[in-house]
């Protein structure tokens, strides 16, 4: 398991249109492909996810089953999770068909399997590009519709909007007032109900992008100089009492230095000096500047792709800090 993407030898269950993966793994192709081809390129086809009986060691009032798939690389059988009797397997082909129902003429951008095959995803370009300062720096944010689910019972079928700033590839998942970012469907819902859900999910997506664009544009107009950025850092990450916690001040200073390096770096060209730039510096460090625990980069890369709810909550906390301090100028 490298960078969260499922790997087998030199092969990886990941495919991407033009843009290389976060981790240089998988198949990168230059021209749009069909849904079937995308599934094949990402090694997501033919898994045949199914339920198999589990022999319990004692009596139980509930039945439990193992979710099992056919491994796409060696043809063996893999147990992906343990579920209860109401769980209905959802094939990867069905997930991508759901994506097609969201955008009938959509273009698949990425597809893959993470967390040892328990979570699969695909992203479609929404063709809703947010451009800040169109006559000046033209800072661009691309928006994608991310469909994903799990095969271990941990996730419903979900459709989410994922804005990604082009320069640094960090996700900007904001919780915006009165605007949902994710639409969820239970594994037990019938196929015909999913079509109704798809239309609602697409409507939610467009409303979210409208709100996101408005929020980002407002941040872009608010001035933040170096001193104000330092205040934002201290508000986001309060300075520790060095006398109470050994080494805490050194860690805090390292974090501050890393943020100022980003603030003065190439990904901030054109947006430094704005609240938008301050927020992007904070989220870029969160996505790409952390050291993986025990050398395992899975959580870091999954968070950067927008899959980690804890990281998304933290980004929204940072957004509130930036907005509060910028308005106080």
Short structural summary:
The protein contains 8 helices and 13 strands.
Would you kindly provide a written description of the structure presented here, covering whatever features stand out?
- The chain has 329 residues and is of the alpha+beta class.
- The protein has 2 domains: 211 residues, no CATH class; 107 residues, no CATH class.
- The strands form 3 sheets. Strands 3, 4, 8, 9, 10, 11, 12 and 13 form an 8-stranded mixed beta sheet that branches. A 3-stranded antiparallel beta sheet has the order 5-6-7, with no helix packed on it. Strands 1-2 form a two-stranded antiparallel sheet.
- The radius of gyration is 22 Å and the shape is globular.
Keywords:
alpha+beta, 8 helices, 35% helix, 22% strand
Compute the CA-based radius of gyration: 22 Å
Order of SSEs = EEEEHEEEHEEEEEEHHHHHH
Count every helix, treating DSSP H or I runs of 4 or more residues as helices: 8
Q: Name the shape in a single word.
A: globular
* Helix amount: 25-40%
Largest sheet: 8 strands, mixed
Backbone structural class: alpha+beta
List unreliable stretches of 5+ residues. Answer: none
**How much strand content do the residues show?**
15-25%
How do the helices and strands line up, and which of them pair or pack?
Elements: E1 7-8, E2 11-12, E3 14-17, E4 27-29, H1 35-41, E5 50-53, E6 64-70, E7 77-84, H2 92-102, E8 107-114, E9 119-125, E10 130-132, E11 139-150, E12 157-165, E13 182-185, H3 191-220, H4 226-236, H5 248-263, H6 275-288, H7 298-304, H8 309-327
Parallel strand pairs: 3-4
Antiparallel strand pairs: 1-2, 3-8, 5-6, 6-7, 8-9, 9-11, 10-11, 11-12, 12-13
């Amino acid at each position: 398991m490298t960078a969260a993407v499922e790997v087998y030898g030199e092969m990886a269950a990941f495919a991407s249109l033009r843009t290389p993966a976060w981790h240089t793994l998988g198949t990168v192709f230059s021209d749009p492909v069909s849904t079937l081809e995308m599934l094949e390129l990402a090694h997501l086809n033919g898994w045949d996810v199914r339920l198999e009986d589990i022999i319990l060691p004692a009596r139980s009032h509930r039945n439990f089953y193992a979710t099992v798939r056919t491994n796409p690389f060696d043809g063996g059988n893999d147990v992906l999770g343990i579920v209860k009797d109401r769980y209905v397997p959802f094939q990867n082909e069905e997930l991508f068909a759901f994506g097609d129902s969201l955008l009938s003429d959509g273009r698949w951008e990425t597809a893959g399997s993470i967390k040892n095959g328990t979570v699969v995803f695909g992203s479609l370009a929404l063709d809703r590009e947010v451009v800040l300062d169109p006559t000046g720096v033209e800072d661009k944010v691309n928006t994608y519709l991310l469909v994903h689910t799990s095969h271990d019972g941990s996730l419903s079928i979900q459709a989410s909007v994922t804005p990604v700033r082009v320069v640094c590839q960090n996700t900007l998942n904001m919780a915006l007032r009165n605007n949902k970012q994710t639409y969820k469907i239970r594994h037990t819902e019938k196929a015909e109900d999913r079509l109704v859900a798809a239309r609602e999910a697409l409507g939610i997506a467009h409303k979210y992008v409208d709100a996101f664009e408005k929020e980002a544009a407002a941040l872009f107009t608010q001035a933040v100089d170096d001193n104000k950025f330092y205040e934002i850092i201290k508000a986001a990450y309060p300075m520790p009492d060095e006398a109470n916690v050994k080494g805490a001040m050194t860690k805090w200073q390292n974090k501050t230095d890393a943020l100022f390096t980003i603030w003065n770096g190439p990904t901030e060209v054109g947006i430094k000096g704005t609240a938008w730039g301050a927020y992007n510096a904070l989220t870029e460090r969160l996505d790409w500047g952390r050291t993986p625990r025990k050398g395992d980069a899975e959580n870091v890369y999954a968070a950067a792709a927008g899959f980690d709810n804890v990281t998304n909550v933290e980004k929204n906390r940072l957004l509130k800090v930036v907005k509060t301090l910028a308005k106080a100028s």
